[in-house]
Specification:
With about 250 residues, this protein is an all-alpha fold. It is about 60% helix and about 0% strand. It is built from ten helices and no strands.
């Protein structure tokens, strides 16, 4: 008769551990890719490498002393065009972003050479189409940050997607027997609390830049809880069994 397994990570069979491990590794890589994506979308908003409070303010509240176009050219899009071309576009914006000047001063040609490869319907990328002047003109106006419609779209994607990921990470971690019950429950619920804090802070920062710190607190706390659950789960599956057997029951309501 096969021996019964205790309800903890340490005592599970190789197949189940392989399933959990594969999921945790892929999700960890996905998390790292998300951090890289944040660096490229928000981390260059102030023109410098690395995510800062200013980056968050410019991304959600906007840089209201300049236009969206200028902020992008001095920030995340700085590497996409040489200084001469960027200066030409910024000059055009400062002079009123006139439609006739857009064609007469060569801005159209600069856009075609430097921007259209991505900013077009053919690229399939979810960014503004710059083949038409009507889509460029609003970006030459004062930068007020992310629009409410884009915040709503990204918010619902994150709420569904991230909560779904942490559901399974938390389920695996709940089988870790070496973590005190109170600490385990706290770590499991933390991502959901700080996911709400993180997303709420986007909307609050849109209204008031002083809330930008909440974005860092919410995102950082989610990352810490993920790292803790990931490390403990991997340790109890693969390292702990080498040292001793574990007969404890990992149920939260034990």
């Amino acid at each position: 008769m096969a021996a019964s397994h205790n309800l903890n990570l340490c005592s599970q069979g190789t197949a189940l551990k392989a399933l959990f491990t594969g999921y945790l590794i892929v999700v960890a890589i996905g998390y790292m890719m998300a951090l890289v994506q944040i660096q490229f979308t928000h981390g260059m908003a102030d023109g410098e490498f690395g995510l800062s409070v200013d980056d968050i303010v410019y991304s959600y509240y906007g840089k209201r002393s300049s236009s969206v176009l200028e902020a992008k050219l001095n920030g995340s899009m700085q590497v996409m065009a040489p200084d001469e071309d960027r200066a030409k576009i910024i000059n055009w914006v400062h002079q009123g972003a006139d439609e006739q000047a857009f064609f007469d001063s060569g801005i159209r040609q600069v856009m075609d050479n430097r921007c259209i490869m991505c900013h077009s319907a053919e690229s399939g990328m979810p960014i503004p189409d710059f083949t038409e002047f009507e889509n460029i003109a609003p970006r030459a106006e004062t930068d007020t940050g992310a629009s409410f419609s884009s915040l709503a779209r990204v918010s619902h994607i994150h709420l569904f997607g991230i909560s779904f990921i942490f559901m399974f990470v938390g389920l695996i971690f709940s089988l870790a027997a070496g973590v005190p019950k109170a600490l385990k429950a706290t770590v499991i619920v933390m991502p959901y609390i700080f996911l709400i804090v993180d997303i709420a802070s986007w909307w609050l920062t849109k209204l008031n830049p002083n809330f930008a710190w909440l974005v860092i607190i919410g995102g950082g706390s989610m990352a810490l809880s993920f790292a803790f659950m990931w490390i403990v789960s991997m340790y109890e599956m693969w390292i702990m069994p080498r040292n001793r057997d574990d007969n404890r029951d990992a149920l939260l309501d034990e």
